[in-house]
Every structure is written in C-alpha cells, then in structure tokens.
Automatic annotation (TrEMBL):
One function term, GO molecular function aspect: ATP binding
Keyword Transit peptide: no
Superkingdom of the source species: Bacteria
Annotated ranges, domain Histidine kinase/HSP90-like ATPase: 4-100
InterPro entries in the cross-refs: Anti-sigma-factor_SerPK (IPR050267), HATPase_C_sf (IPR036890), HATPase_dom (IPR003594)
Entry keywords, A to Z: ATP-binding, Kinase, Nucleotide-binding, Serine/threonine-protein kinase, Transferase
Protein species of origin: Streptomyces brevispora
One Pfam assignment: HATPase_c_2
Protein known as: ATP-binding protein
Amino acid sequence: MDVHVAQARRTTATVLKHWSLPETPAEDARLVVSELVSNAIIHGSGDVRLRLRLRHDEHELRIRVTDDSTAPARRRRASAAGLGGRGLHLVACLSLRWGVADGGRTTYAVIPTLTEAPPCRRTTQSSTDPTC
C-alpha cells in the first residue's frame, strides 16, 4: 500500500510544481491525495486511478480518486486509540467540498488554490457533480 500512496503523492507534487501551484494549497492537495488513495486501496477494489484538474477560472484544484468498488466512501468515527477513521475528516477540513460520484466508485475533493481564500469546508456526502 505505501508504495502506491507514495507514488501518488510524488506524482501530485510534480504536477502541482509544474502548474506553479502555491505551497499551501499544494501541501493540502498532497495530503488529500494520500488520504483518498489510501482509502481506495484499503476499502476499494481493482485499480486505483488518480485525476487532477486545475481550474484557474474558479481558483480550484479538483482531485478524483476512482476504484472499482461501488461502496461509497464515508466518514467514520475514530476511536481515541484507533489508527484509522480520520482520513475523510482531514479531507473535509482541507477541502471546499468533497463527496462521491460515479455510483460510489469515485471520491473527489476540491481544494482552493488561492491561499488567502479560506475554504468553506462544506462536506457533500454524495453527489452527481459532473464537473468535478
């Protein structure tokens, strides 16, 4: 698992550097990618695919992680001693919005690219958002 997550994180860092994304949103995006890819590997099935889309006009970076499972990602309550259950909480805290699409196969997050624009951190548990 760590190899795939690390590879996704490195690829994301390279792409975002090429796109000249400021460090704060790039750091948030790397963490979100790590969490979404980890969840897809642990809870999903089949190949895990990552898509990044920068929307300059909307000042947003859209992250999509897709696998073959139709079970949608969902936030869990983490126990104090538990190691898991915090990933989607982190995604929600760093994102303008997040949710699931494609019948549960895709989990997406939208990261603000302007460092001075605070994220509204609205959580969308399910969505048919075709633009994300």
